């Protein structure tokens, strides 16, 4: 049976927390959730872009209920402040989608000194989920990690990149991106294992990837310093094989709302080797399923954020 957005159940009375709402996938995901009745709590780093996105959402779906929380995943102080604000404002989060990310930028560091991609895509979301965990646990929430088919391009994770000292290797933007997305997937699986071991009732941890979707992600990271010929070429080239940003949001939406999913499942497009198509359950690499590496990644992530994440 082929999944479509018509299969999304009525989400009236459900609250969804979504990071990275100002970009393509975040915008399309939030709009579809609002159309099905969900109340949205969205995060953004740029206030002007957040205002523009909220205006767009309410134009497209006049009944949309949207609240914005300022969050910069590349700054752990911002993560703690934003998580405290969410926990103060709300007594329940039903679905949390960790969607925000950056792709193949020039070499940069987060506020705490981590390489920008692992620091934003993984460490930031690890800290975000850890800080919100009491609320997510008590809400019996579904937690969705957004990974990428780029996770298949790497054979492991250099855990030294999860330290402010960083890895001594020469920075390779694609390798670092692939490792950050592998970390997203491994985090979802390890969280699922720890939920099961702890006997936490109701909480479900799953992951999804959008295939290759035509969004601004292909040029915003590369163009961090301004216009980049590489970013322009990559953005234009992606359009030759990519599906739309709306179609790219489908696996995220299925992961967030399909009541038949179990913890630890992974969703992505069914066609063209995972590049495009309707969403379905998909496979992952052997290293992504490695529980020993996942445990080490979890421990390194706890060290990076400076506190334990006790499920």
Keywords:
single chain, 311 residues, alpha/beta, Rossmann fold, eight-stranded mixed β-sheet, two-stranded parallel ribbon, 9 helices, 10 strands, 15% strand, globular
* Tally of strands: 10
The mean pLDDT is: 93
Q: Label the structural class.
A: alpha/beta
What is the CA-atom radius of gyration, in angstroms? 18 Å
Q: What is the correct CATH architecture?
A: 3-Layer(aba) Sandwich
- Distance N terminus to C terminus? 35 Å
Order of helices and strands: EHEHEHEHEHEEHHEHEEH
* Proportion of residues in extended strands: 5-15%
Total domains: 1
Instruction: State the fourth-level CATH superfamily.
Output: NAD(P)-binding Rossmann-like Domain
Runs with pLDDT <50, length 5+?
none
What is the tally of helical segments? 9
Largest sheet, strands/sense/barrel: 8 strands, mixed
Notes on the protein architecture:
It is a single chain. The protein has 311 residues and is an alpha/beta fold. The chain has a single domain, classed as Rossmann fold. It is built from 9 helices and 10 strands. The strands form 2 sheets. An 8-stranded mixed beta sheet has the order 3-2-1-4-5-6-9-10, sandwiched between helices. The chain has a two-stranded parallel ribbon with strand order 7-8. Helix 2 links the parallel strand 2 and strand 3. Helix 3 runs parallel beside helix 4, helix 4 runs parallel beside helix 5 and helix 5 crosses helix 9. The longest helix is centred in the middle third of the chain and has 26 residues.
